[in-house]
Amino acid sequence: MKDNFAQYFDRPEFQQLLTRYEEMLKGDRTYYFEATELTDIAEYYAMQGDSKQAEAALDYALRLHPDNLDALIFKARARLINGRPQEAQRILDSIADQGDREVMFLRAELLMASQQQHHAEALLRTLIEEENYEADTYADIIDLLVDNGQTDMANLWIEEATQRYPGHQTLTESAAYSYVQQEQFDEAIELYNQLLDIDPYSTLYWEELGKIHFRREEYDKAIEAFEFVIAINGDECYYALYAAANCYFNIGNYERAEEYYHTIHEHYPETVDPLFHMGMCRVNRGDDDTALDYFTQALCTIPEGSEEQAQIYSQMSLIFSRRGQHAKAVTYTDEALKICPDNTELIIMKGHELLCQGRYEESTELFLEALERDEASVERSLFLIGVSMLENGHCEMSHYILRLLKGNPAIEPEILYPYLCFCEWTIREENFRNTLTEALSLCPQKTYEIFSLPPAQGESAERMIERLQQLTTSN
Fold first, then answer.
1. What is the pTM of this model?
2. Considering only CA atoms, which of 290, 342, 340 is closest in space to residue 316?
3. pLDDT by 10s per residue, the chain, length 475
4. 3-class state of residue 50 by DSSP
5. How many CA atoms lie within 13 A of 171 on its CB side?
6. How far is residue 154's CA from residue 178's CA, in Å, rounded to a whole number?
7. C-alpha count within 13 angstroms, C-beta hemisphere, residue 228
8. Cβ contacts of residue 39 below 8 Å, gap of 6+?
């Protein structure tokens, strides 16, 4: 299994290295960097999706260390990943030591990229023979094949390697990594548990196990794994802290989630995300005042014009909308739209706020703009417009829109039915009983929430209608 770069990038020593590099770029300071440090920085930018900065770091590394093999290989791989295999080949051919194992790996990658799997296989066979069928070499080859999407070939190598080295720890890691990439999670879980029998205090194994459970939405098991990492490492484990916080958030334990986000903010104050998530926890706990405080703090440190800034502005808009301060809500939506002008949900949000102010023509123009701007998500836009109509008391129009979406695979029934139910109850639609039965089956909690009724587990549609009628009579 490959080393978890994300863990290294979160460590203070790498953050200090990155700070020095970025200070140098700004011209504030002059520093010397080893080639390995610059390739680590390039790897960081690549993982962030910033290929331009990654390339710049590699170019700088090669200016300082023109013959550095790691930098040359990394640069060739970057060219390959960016769809420029001919340039990658030229870099490969320029390397003096063609017998180096990493150069052979790179050549195998280029062969696989050009659909020459048989030649790649022959090259890897040469390598394994040269290195006397060592277990670590098998593991490196398996990882390479998995990373290049050659899982069938990787499985054959895993079978061969485990026959030679049954129960070998490194090979078990590689096999587990392969299973995860193939989404064969049961097999991966079994192998990670075997690895934990060997090394029960390995934070890497516990983290990988936690990631699998998170992907399967088994949040309780994921929490157990991530909290074991935290118990071993204390609070100096950024990924596990964040993952545990996200798990608690996803199961609705916002108080516990906020505690973890607060710990992250204390130990990693330069990161903005914890403040935003702390704000979201407070939103979900019904504490908009504290949420606004968190969002305002986040805005003080967040990069200008970033997507995160737009998210904060949109959440602040929603808070002021709930308070009935629709004009103020529009100002924050406008700030978000300056950053993301093509975001149809933001356009509909602004239309909703204008509709709340009775500015019907302007809101209609925005709704139509959203529908025309992104045809790929027109169903989602229609749903949001229908909900806006409902919240503004235009139930017949809302019903007309939401009914169009019934049975549409783009909108999940458990999202649609509660709102459709409310429309049908309000306008006395004869199909209400059937829709309510579906809603109580698919999404009872949201249905009770929209009708402002206390939940009643296993309640029939007839009994809920009785409660609604009693509530109407008493009012």
1. 0.79
2. 290
3. 444 555 677 677 788 888 888 888 887 677 788 888 888 888 888 777 777 788 888 788 888 888 777 888 888 887 887 788 888 898 888 887 788 888 899 899 999 999 999 999 999 999 999 999 999 999 999 999 998 999 999 999 999 999 999 999 999 999 999 999 999 999 999 999 999 999 999 999 999 999 999 999 999 999 999 999 999 988 778 889 999 999 999 999 999 999 999 999 998 887 778 999 999 999 999 999 999 999 999 998 888 888 899 999 999 999 999 999 999 999 999 999 999 999 999 999 999 999 999 999 999 999 999 999 988 899 999 999 999 999 999 999 999 999 999 999 999 999 999 999 999 999 999 899 999 999 999 999 999 999 999 988 889 999 999 999 988 777 6
4. coil
5. 21
6. 8
7. 17
8. 57, 58, 61, 70, 71, 74
Torsion, Cα 272 277 279 285, to 10 degrees, reads -170
Determine the Cα–Cα distance for residues 177 and 186; give it in Å rounded to an integer: 12
Distances (CA, A) of 307 to 222, 310, 313, 344, 376: 28, 5, 10, 15, 21
